[in-house]
Amino acid sequence: QGELLIGGMELTNGYWNRPELNATMFFENPYEKEHDGIDVSRLYHSGDLVVLNEDGSYDYIGRKDSQIKLHGYRIELGEICTLIEKQDGVLRAFVRLEEIGNEKYIVAYVRTSDDVKNLSDIRQEVARQLPAYMVPTFWNHVDDFKLNINGKIDKSTLVNKAVDPVVTNDTPLTAHEELLMQAVASLIGLPSVNVDADLFNDVGITSLHIMQLTVQMGVSGIHLTPNDFYSLRTIRRIMAAEQHPNYFWYGEG
Predict the structure, then answer these.
(1) Rounded distance, CA 126 to CA 130, Å?
(2) What is the pLDDT of residues 129-161, one digit of tens each?
(3) Please, are residues 205 and 184 in contact by the beta-carbon 8 Å criterion?
(4) Which of 2, 145, 14, 103 lies closest to 60 in space, CA to CA?
(5) C-alpha neighbours within 13 Å on the C-beta side of residue 102
(6) Which residues, at least 6 apart from 45, have a Cβ–Cβ distance to it below 8 Å?
(7) What b/e sequence results for 156-190 when a residue is b if at least 16 CB atoms lie within 10 Å of its CB, and e otherwise?
């Protein structure tokens, strides 16, 4: 995978009255000055990431400027978007990094054909083909993408509505559920957390969060292990002591 560089007779002389941009985007070709009699001494950074195939064709991966670093991993958002758009029923997709509370999350916006009722199957298929750290945490169904004057998706019109059910509880919480819920919400900077939400897939907690939560809950008199989070996955199941033989409560009479 690498950046596609452009040179040759059709290469523009540069941006009008943008000397600083020209100095960044155009450069002297370090590989060759002439190719098949054509001057290629000057190249242009396209910003497009591609893979060269054996037959000489290129597969487009995404934009170089869509690369992000999240939890120590370098991620190409265009690669995620391309994979989503390959799924059955997907008409168009957009993926970006959003800051929600104290954390940053990969958020997907997807427009589908009328026969696709929800995004769960698409999400599962994408999760099967990508490492966990590249799978978007929040998935939003979009009826139609609004475009700007350049024909590109107007990012300002996209609203992450998928976060609403993750922070909303429709049923009463027990005292222990409330305690863990507040600890999780405080840690990731959300006003609340749905006790039935998957803490990994829906909320996006990490192994670092788990270590912090086990310590914090231990101080509150509740002993939890990392395996409790990995195996039970929701606040409600974790705090259901009667369903979890490894629970060990402190200070309860």
Answers:
(1) 6
(2) 999 999 999 999 999 999 988 788 999 999 999
(3) yes
(4) 2
(5) 11
(6) 3, 5, 24, 25, 26, 27
(7) eebebebbeebbebeeebeebbebbbebbbebbeb
